Description:
Largest sheet: 6 strands, mixed
Number of helices: 18
Amino acid sequence: MAYRQGNREQLMLFPMSIEEMVPKDDPARVYDAFVDNLDFEKLDFKMNFSKVGNPEYDPKSMLKVLLYGYSYGLKSSRQIERAVYHNVIFIWLAGGLKPDHITIARFRKRNKTLLKQIFKECAQLCIKLNLIAGNVLFVDGSKIRANAGIKNSCKLKEGRQLLANIGHRINVLLNACEKADRQEEGLGSYVKLQEELNTLEKIQNKVKQVMAQMEAEGETEINTTDPDCRRMHGRQGVHSAYNAQIVVDEKHGLIVSNDVVNEANDRHQFCNQINQAQNILGKKCQVACADAGYENIEIAKKVADQGIAVVMPNQKQAAHKKGNMEFSKELFRYDPQQNIYICPQGQPLRYSHFNKETNQYLYRMKNAGDCHNCVNFGVCTTSRRGRSIIRLKEEGLKEKLAIAFHSQVAQKIYKRRKETVELVFGHIKHNLRFTSFSLRGIANVRAEMAILATVFNIRRLITLMGTSNLCAALQICQKRIPSAAKSRFLLFQRVFFPAFQPLTSICSGQTHYKIKIESR
């Protein structure tokens, strides 16, 4: 059997250029076209070609290798540096430039605003291509580790004790320095004592700054390495982490907006994330969907007041607990006219007071003896004051949302959420192997999350449209189209867009989603 063997010393009459090494249908050409057609002046990035001094690397080339590196799991500046030297695609994207890891890291850190704006440009591109409809939006969050160890977390009580210990040690060293001045022998080198004293003073100043920040923000714990991150519980345990948030469109699963917060739970994020997505869309969505982790009736009311249908289960519905358990709140009938609850035995629970801190109404048995004499006492309640019921300020809306969630339309939308928004974090964490942020500080982390959202959308666009069609679309959509070229743009729409019609709607093919909310 014959074998094909290579020859490294074979000479070529006409050596190949870098351009010939990259196929015309290679996905890298999409990243190249995407960055080349960005309007950097519109992104508030001033390119000064007449700047004196040592020339900088072309920011477009730096951005290309950065986006392409993240899209294939290379987030480290040293990994990207090696790729720029050895990987043909990276060499082609950089145009033969060889930036080192310090230059790459500095570019990523200094251009946080640019990276955030680039994601918005990518989302606007998806809207222009009619690949984001903005009718149904899914919100989800995931914990991603920070670039800081949990052992560096400092609690307020521990910080005070540390300051006391450092202060005591500084006093001891000051006394030793004075004694060393009087006695030249016996206590070792005065220089070593002074060095230790300077070190302790630096630590003391740093701890004081951290303590001041904790008291100003009302925090009881802070990480000394990255003060913006927080202790969070994830599936892999407890770590210093951030809470990454994304809003995904139902049509093709493209990301509409992204954000990073340092709150350990999602209860206060639903309205903020929907509003950010609507600002990018330039219109109001019809349905906003999230899981039970976002359950906060006051936040959900802000979304519902905009005329948006909210699909969100409560904790019992998410845990598949039956609402009609024995003596649960659901079995107590509320009479709005008399403002009382009536227990299964027919006894009324009257209004007691309103808690301003929790925005809850409290209802109690007027006569505790009615509960004590009841055959169900000890099962329904064991309180000496009798059974009590808590009613939220927006309890009526909560009941309506719970009923609406069981509708057939809402169930289809919620099922679609699992197939769409959770796929994004699965791709980021599993395929891209992105389990922790490389940068520190919430501003830098948000920029890094914007990179991840951008590369996800680009790879999704390549899957939907193909490399050649997408490159052609980028040439048209990302540039200002003169009036003479409008006919050519409309022709492009007729040629390419029919192949990318919206997915079959989960609401009987309709583009408008109406969730009927029935009152009890």
